[in-house]
Amino acid sequence: MSLKFENYNPAEDKLFQIMDNMGVIINPSEMPDISDALAVKAYKDMLFSRIADAMAVSFQRQGRMYTYPSNYGQEAIAVAAGMAMREEDWMVPAFRELAAWLAKGATLKEIFLYYMGNEEGSAFKNAKHLLPFSVPISSQFPHAVGIGYAINQHKKDEVVFAFVGDGGTSEGDFSEALNFAAVWKVPVVFIVQNNQYAISVPIRKQTKSKNIAVKAMAFGMPGIKVDGNDIFAMYAALKHAADYARTKNGPVLIEGFTYRRGAHTTSDDPTKYRTKEEEQEWDAKDPLKRLKFYLDSKGLWTEDEEKLTEQYKQEVERQFEEAEKTPPHTLDDVFKYTHYEMPDELRRQKVEYEKFLQWKEGRK
Amino acid sequence: MEGGTKMSVMTMVQAINNAMDIKLAEDSNVVIYGEDVGYEGGVFRVTEGLQQKYGENRVFDSPLAESAIVGTAVGMAIAGLRPIVELQFDGFTYPAFNQIVSHAARMHNRTRGKFKTPMVIRFPYGGGINALEHHSESPEATYGHIPGLKVVIPSTPHDAKGLLISAIESDDTIIFMEPKRIYRAIKQEVSTEKFSIPIGKAKVVTPGTDITVVAYGAMIREVQKAMVMAKEAGISVELIDLRTIYPIDRETIAQSIQKTGRVLTVAESPTSFGVGAEIMAIANEEAFLYLEAPPRRVNGFDTIIPLAKGEHFYMQTPEKIFYEIERTVRF
Fold first, then answer.
1. CA angle A121, A127, A130 (to 5 degrees)
2. B102 and A139: CB-CB below 8 Å?
3. Going along A206-321, which residue ranges are E strands?
4. Nearest to residue B275, comparing CAs of B244, B254, B303, B318?
5. Helix, strand, or coil (residue B79)
6. In the prediction, which pLDDT does A1 show?
7. A180-189 pLDDT tens trace
8. Nearest to B218 by CA among B126, B140, B151, B310
9. What are the residue boundaries of the Transketolase-like pyrimidine-binding domain, all occurrences included (chain B) (predicted)?
10. pLDDT, tens digit, for every residue of A135-182?
11. Is A85 part of the contact surface with chain B (CB cutoff 8 Å)?
């Protein structure tokens, strides 16, 4: 692998690609070191993520879950990130990186719990160094930089992977974080999932920059625009950026140029602001199709996809049912974590409420 | 533990500096940053000399961006550091409001206790120094109203040191507001050794029998001046220094009101929805049948704090405080 950021000057709007839409390797010199088995696993992970995502949307439609943001079409970025992250690395997510959460050790059950309104879901109990979802846009970026500062201070060999969408690049926190990161030379890989829309606002109304990657230049860090539906290119870029950051060169900005094929969330209807032609154009660039073409051409795919799909569906169903069976918050939970040391005032408020509950019980 | 044997006369600025010096020496995870705090030692020189002593990795100047200053501190705290950040003035905390409210205050809750954010957000607050716009505000009730934050305000050099040491050692996020008007106006013997004052406990500064006056920060000194007038008028005032805005010390306030039957609150902030209203709620809930007069508030108006030439209308003076004390006692 010989990727050099300087060969992909974002000011010239260069796009880093390895595999074309038909799964043909068009840039063999920059093909990352991926074993056949890992390439197959990458496809399986994307497939699992796509199935889980589609089922999540359907659970929401059945009224069994609250608002959910679809990951449909963006699986390659998340799976590639999962492949590039080590266990000790940190992940600072936005909210559309389902496969990366799973790779980091979160469970589908936890993710479902979160979207069912159960806070247990965002604790990611057995995942190491995984932050919860950040709903205020871009506000997680400064956290990534602070973690990076702590990594340097503790002389640790860790990297932070931080995610945001294209809309988030307009927020002040995006610029503030990139600036701090470059000045402090922290090991952070900033990943912008440019899926072309912030809800209904298209990228051309979001920024006058040629692309997102070019913004890195103003802050004094490398930036690269990558075909976000090309898992080999995404993995190569993320791996290279992580190595660059891990060897204390400072932060990198990666623009994953992709497309959200679903709605922004289950409350949104993209047919109002997108054309059929555009959707068809991106269908041809679909990350799963492309990797499948590649695997088929190499004779690497030997599984029965239908059987596998069925198996994955059952697994998603199983975890969803577990989430549904999880009891809701207790009153204790509401009070327990607001402060590390609970103030007496909160104890008093809880006792008052318990008295009310007793009174209510007595009326029955 | 309060007190100590080795004493030195300190201003509040020196006492705060001394607290940070002690914690920097003791805990290598403590870091201090913000605009101007490193090389220059802060615009009020509160961090003076600390960078020279502890190096640029532990005490440093950050780029100018309040949201990122607080936001990066959230990340540092999650990853094991204990950041103390300085925001230069009260009115400049608002650009950081999203990070304070959306993240610093709730990361512990959101992760069900998995992550904590032990950090101190320090900033000078309050009026009376003929400052520019956005330099004289008192947003303690704003931050006190945010679940997940604790808000501390010292009124003396001794308290500033002891409370700040507690704040740095706390595993919660602490908003530490420094009354800039008395940064150098009060000198006091303070122990040079390490000591701490618990967060959440008010102090009865002066016991009295006729009326309870609850105040904090720079207002304590103004109330004490008013108390001289009250004494001449034969009124015995019990003065309570809140020390912590949230969690508020309900017990100390309630006991005092039950004893005196009257309460007056004094603060620099706008009147409505302020700390005074909270104390009145405590008076109602805990001491209603003891009350001999309606609780009253001495506050600024619900206006933008005027610039220097008009500031005297807004400020709480000893005369204004005495006027309200007398009105309440003679009700």
1. 80
2. yes
3. 223-227, 252-257
4. B244
5. coil
6. 53
7. 999 999 999 9
8. B126
9. 10-185
10. 999 999 999 999 999 999 999 999 999 999 999 999 999 999 999 999
11. no
Task: List, for chain B, all residue ranges whose pLDDT scores fall below the cut of 70.
Answer: 1-4
B130: left (phi over 0), alpha (psi -120 to 50) or beta: left
CB–CB of A343 and B98 under 8 A? Answer: no
* CA dist., res. B286 & res. A314, Å (int): 58
The answer to whether the beta carbons of residues B138 and B127 sit under 8 Å apart is yes
Q: Does A153 touch chain B (CB under 8 A)?
A: yes
User: What is the three-class DSSP state of A281?
Assistant: helix
| Interchain pair B200, A172: CB under 8 A | no
Which candidate, A33, A34, A137, places its Cα nearest to that of A94?
A: A137
CA dist., res. A222 & res. A215, Å (int): 10
pLDDT at residue A35, as a whole number: 97
Minimal C-alpha gap between B171 and chain A (Å)? 6
Look up residue B280 and give its two tokens.
């009145």
Which domains are seen in chain B, by residue range? 7-191 (3.40.50.970), 203-330 (3.40.50.920)
In B46-182, which ranges are E strands?
59-61, 82-86, 119-125, 149-152, 173-179
How far apart are the CA of B14 and the nearest CA of chain A, in angstroms?
27
* Active-site residue, selected from the candidate residues A86, A273, A318, A353: A273
Chain A interface test: which of B67, B108, B175, B249 (most A C-beta within 10 Å) = B67
**Which position has the token pair 């103003």?**
A218
Query: So what's the ipTM on this one?
Result: 0.92
| CA-wise closest residue to A172 among A199, A137, A143, A204 | A137
Using DSSP, state whether B172 is helix, strand or coil: coil
Q: State whether residue A44 sits within 8 Å of chain B by CB.
A: no
Q: Is A339 part of the contact surface with chain B (CB cutoff 8 Å)? A: yes
Which among A119, A134, A146 is the nearest to B112, CB-wise?
A119
Name the β-bridge partners of A188.
A160
